[in-house]
Amino acid sequence: MKSISKPRIPCGHRACASIIASILACVVTSVVQASTGPTQVELLVSPAPKYAPQTPAQSDAGERTGRPLPTPEILQPTLDPTLPTFKPHYGHTLKGSLRMGSSDVLPGLVRSWIAGFERLYPDVHISFGPPYEGTHAEAEMDHGKIDIAFVSRELKPTDIATFAADHGYPPLSVPVSGGSYRQFGFLDAVGFFVNQANPVEHLSLTQLDQILSSSHLRGGSTAKTWGDVGVTGDWATHPIHVYAIKPWNGFEEFVRQRVLDVNGQRGHWRKDLHFDHLVFPVADGVAADPDGIGYAGLAFVDAPVKLISIGTEGQFVAPTYSNVATASYPLSRLIYANVNRKPGSAMNPALQEFLRFVLSRQGQQAVLSEAIFLPLREFQSNPARSLIAPTSPGLHP
């Protein structure tokens, strides 16, 4: 029973959707004519392979040398042509040193940035080495042992609180790259999915907040049945069974920030959700439960479920490769450079120039060349550059 209209796929995206369907093993399950508007296309992505958590030996190896890179994506986005070309502020005269650390999925990308920057500024000496681990890098930055902690997720609330207690202000987190699309362990985009029998095709962020949160910072009240989010007919009385991830978890924190948090206020999960300690069982739970809904990184959607579009009323975006690559999908992820910058203070010129380089066309070309993560679009890069804007009126970000 169809109770919510299908999301529209703009005409210009149909050819792209066809390519994605064949290359990414998407299955076209139906083509229907809506009562109003053009023909719609419904896509189901085939289940991802089953993966297991890292073993202690794999984790140790990742800290020493970085995690082995997955097979690069076959499709690659074009680089945003409006990204600015990097123009050194100091010619070759800049001198100094920088110390860096990163998560275990980032050493290759960070080394590419370092190599490109050192060609422009050969007298800036950069040290970067193991251990490669996000929480460790953040702690080293907090203690003044490194200048940049590249972390492939949002910082833990406890890490931010510890840093603020030590310094009197939070760390500055600057987006420097998009995440991946469906790469296991490499910051894949997050999808919400329902059982294949469920008629729901899309949900707004407000509806998700009604389903997931006790705080309801987006308004509305708790949604306990599918009728509470607009489903009609027999399905309206079905209870909503939520399969979520127990805090703290990188996926959980991301969904909390993107869905439950509003205007700097931190949202809170409902207590009656089905919480798993890890992301691995979530898709299986929803596949076995006709009334289920859950979320996971796209690489963990390893059971036959239906991914749904997410957005605001009237504008819902499906988690296709093209939508994630262009950052129009609202649950696309970001990689951050975390630095210690006191609000209103000047930034170390070498540090500032390095981050400007990373956010430039040359820096994002390095992301594209690695073919694992997705380069920033200019609408993401521009506010990131504002975060590191020089204090001198003679310089421009």
Automatic annotation (TrEMBL):
Residues 1-34 form the signal peptide. It holds the Pfam family PBP_like_2. Residues 96-361 form the PBP domain. Keywords: Signal. Residues 50-80 are annotated as: Disordered. This is PstS family phosphate ABC transporter substrate-binding protein.
